[in-house]
UniProtKB/TrEMBL annotation:
<feature type="compositionally biased region" description="Basic residues">
    <location>
        <begin position="57"/>
        <end position="69"/>
    </location>
</feature>
<dbReference type="GO" id="GO:0030968">
    <property type="term" value="P:endoplasmic reticulum unfolded protein response"/>
</dbReference>
<dbReference type="InterPro" id="IPR001680">
    <property type="entry name" value="WD40_rpt"/>
</dbReference>
<feature type="repeat" description="WD">
    <location>
        <begin position="184"/>
        <end position="218"/>
    </location>
</feature>
<keyword id="KW-0832">Ubl conjugation</keyword>
<dbReference type="InterPro" id="IPR020472">
    <property type="entry name" value="WD40_PAC1"/>
</dbReference>
<dbReference type="InterPro" id="IPR019775">
    <property type="entry name" value="WD40_repeat_CS"/>
</dbReference>
<dbReference type="InterPro" id="IPR015943">
    <property type="entry name" value="WD40/YVTN_repeat-like_dom_sf"/>
</dbReference>
<keyword id="KW-0175">Coiled coil</keyword>
<dbReference type="GO" id="GO:0005783">
    <property type="term" value="C:endoplasmic reticulum"/>
</dbReference>
<keyword id="KW-0597">Phosphoprotein</keyword>
<keyword id="KW-0732">Signal</keyword>
<dbReference type="Pfam" id="PF00400">
    <property type="entry name" value="WD40"/>
</dbReference>
<keyword id="KW-1017">Isopeptide bond</keyword>
<keyword id="KW-0853">WD repeat</keyword>
<feature type="repeat" description="WD">
    <location>
        <begin position="86"/>
        <end position="118"/>
    </location>
</feature>
<feature type="coiled-coil region">
    <location>
        <begin position="408"/>
        <end position="444"/>
    </location>
</feature>
Length: 446
C-alpha cells in the first residue's frame, strides 16, 4: 500500500487541530454563559429580597449545619434568683453531692468524668473544677466520703461501686486514683441510689426491685433488706447515720435502724418506723440535717412534712406536721429536697422547680424550664442559702429566698418572747442579715 506524502499528513494534522480548538472554545463559551446566568439569577434574588436557591449552598455551610445538629446547644436559662450556672461537663449530669465540710460539690455525667467544684467560687464570675476520669465507663451516681478525702460512684455499665481516693497535690489541687478493685456485682435490677453513712461505718446501695444492701467499706455485704414495696423508687441514709429509709409502689416510707456495737462492729438491721398517710405510691422523700424531720411527695398529689424525733422502740409513731398540694405529682414522677432546717421544701417535676414554705404550706417561688431535660437531681447546700439542680450539661444554683423569709418570720416571733438583752441582740442580728439578703435580691416583701 502506498503511504501518503508528507505535505498531505501535515495538512491533515492542522485540520484536526483547528477543529479541536473550535470545539473547546464553544464549550468554554457555553460554560461562561451558564455561570453568568446563574450569578445573575442569584444576584437578582438577593436584590429582590428572595432567598437564594437551596441547591447553591456551599459545602462549608452544609458542614456547619451538620456539626450544629450533632452537638446540641447548651440550654439557656435566666432568672433574677439564679446565682450561678456550672458548665464544664460535655455530657448530661446525672447526680451531684455536697461534701460534709461544705467546701465542694461533686457532679458526675455521661461524659465519663466526675468534677469536683469549689463552693467558694459559686458567686464569682469563674467556677473552678477538678476532673476525675472514669475509665472505660461512666458514673450515674456519686457520693462524698465523710472525711471528704474520697468519693464513690456507681458505674453505669459495670453495675457496681468504684471508690476514688483524693490525694492533695503540692499546688493545692487533687489527684484522683481509683482503688484496684471495684465492689462485687450483687444487684440484679437497676440501681436507684447509693450512700455513705456519716460515721463511715457502712455504705448503702438500693435497686429498683425491692433490694437494699448494707456494705462495709471493703466491699463485703453486711445485710440485705427486702423492702416489700413491690419496687423501690428511692432509698437514702439519714444524716445521723442511724437509719436507712425507702419508698416505692406502696403508699408509705419505711425506715430501718442499722445497729452497731460499742466497738463499732455490725450487729443487725431492725425495722424502726413508717411514715403512713399517703394514699398512693411515694415518689421521693428527704431528711432534714438533724434527721428530726422528713418530707415526702406522693402520686396522690400531696407532699407531707413529718416529725420523726420519736421513741420508736416504745411504739411511738412519727407526727404529721403539714400537708400541701402538688398536683403535678399525680401525673409525673417528682423529686424532693428539704432544706437543712426543714423550713423550705423544693419539688421538681419535669424541668421545673417549685419552692414551698413548710410552716404555712404555701408556694413561694417557681422556676420554669430550668433545664433542657427533666431535673435529674436536686439538693440544698449545707448552709441552706443555695438550691442546686441538674438535668442537662449544667448545674444551676438558686438563691433560697423562701429560706430567708422563714428566718425573718422565726426571728420576729422569737424576739417577742426574748427575755434578756443578749438574746434579743443575737436574734435582731440574724433578722437584719436575712432582711438585707432579701433586699439585695429584690425579694423583700413590703
Amino acid at each position: 500500500m502506498e503511504l501518503p506524502q508528507m505535505p498531505e499528513l501535515m495538512g491533515l494534522s492542522l485540520l484536526l487541530g483547528l477543529l479541536a480548538l473550535v470545539a473547546t472554545a464553544a464549550v468554554a463559551r457555553g460554560w461562561l454563559r451558564a455561570e453568568e446566568e446563574t450569578n445573575g439569577r442569584s444576584a437578582g434574588q438577593k436584590a429582590n429580597g428572595c432567598p437564594p436557591d437551596k441547591s447553591l449552598k456551599s459545602k462549608k455551610q452544609k458542614l456547619q449545619q451538620r456539626i450544629r445538629k450533632e452537638k446540641p446547644q447548651q440550654h439557656n436559662f435566666t432568672h433574677h434568683l439564679l446565682a450561678a450556672a456550672l458548665k464544664s461537663h460535655s455530657g448530661n449530669i446525672t447526680c451531684m453531692d455536697f461534701s460534709s465540710n461544705g467546701k465542694y460539690l461533686a457532679t458526675c455525667a455521661d461524659d465519663r468524668t466526675v468534677r469536683i467544684w469549689s463552693t467558694k467560687d459559686f458567686l464569682q464570675r469563674e467556677h473552678r473544677s477538678m476532673r476525675a476520669n472514669v475509665e472505660l465507663d461512666h458514673a450515674i451516681l456519686v457520693r462524698f466520703s465523710p472525711d471528704c478525702r474520697a468519693f464513690i460512684v456507681w458505674l453505669a455499665n459495670g453495675d457496681t461501686l468504684r471508690i476514688f481516693k483524693m490525694m492533695k497535690r503540692d499546688d493545692g489541687g487533687y489527684a484522683f486514683t481509683a482503688t484496684p478493685e471495684d465492689f462485687p456485682k450483687k444487684h440484679k435490677a437497676p440501681i436507684v441510689n447509693i450512700g455513705i453513712a456519716d460515721t463511715g461505718k457502712f455504705i448503702m446501695t438500693a435497686s429498683s426491685d425491692t433490694t437494699i444492701l448494707i456494705w462495709n467499706l471493703k466491699g463485703q455485704v453486711l445485710s440485705t433488706i427486702n423492702t416489700n414495696h413491690m419496687n423501690n423508687t428511692y432509698a437514702a441514709i439519714s444524716p445521723c447515720s442511724r437509719f436507712v429509709a425507702s419508698c416505692g409502689f406502696t403508699p408509705d416510707v419505711k425506715v430501718w435502724e442499722v445497729c452497731f456495737g460499742k466497738k463499732g462492729d455490725f450487729q443487725e438491721v431492725v425495722r424502726a418506723f413508717e411514715l403512713k398517710g399517703h394514699s398512693a405510691a411515694v415518689h421521693f422523700f428527704a431528711f432534714s440535717n438533724d434527721s428530726r424531720r422528713m418530707a415526702s411527695v406522693s402520686k396522690d398529689g400531696t407532699w407531707k412534712l413529718w416529725d420523726t424525733d420519736v421513741e420508736y422502740k416504745k411504739q411511738q409513731d412519727p407526727y404529721l406536721l403539714r400537708t400541701g398540694r402538688f398536683e403535678e405529682a399525680s401525673t409525673v414522677p417528682c423529686r424532693l429536697a428539704l432544706s437543712p432546717d426543714a423550713q423550705v421544701l423544693a419539688l421538681a417535676s419535669g424541668s421545673s422547680i417549685h419552692l414551698y414554705n413548710t410552716r404555712r404550706g404555701e408556694k413561694e417561688e417557681c422556676f420554669e424550664q430550668v433545664h433542657g431535660e427533666c431535673v435529674s437531681d436536686l439538693s440544698f447546700d449545707i448552709t441552706g442559702r443555695l438550691l442546686a439542680s441538674c438535668g442537662d450539661r449544667a448545674v444551676r444554683l438558686f438563691h433560697n429566698t423562701p429560706g430567708y423569709r422563714a428566718v425573718v418570720e422565726e426571728m420576729q416571733a422569737l424576739l417577742k418572747r426574748a427575755s434578756n438583752e443578749s438574746t434579743r441582740q443575737r436574734l435582731q442580728q440574724q433578722l437584719t442579715q436575712a432582711q438585707e439578703a432579701l433586699k439585695n435580691l429584690g425579694a423583700l416583701k413590703k
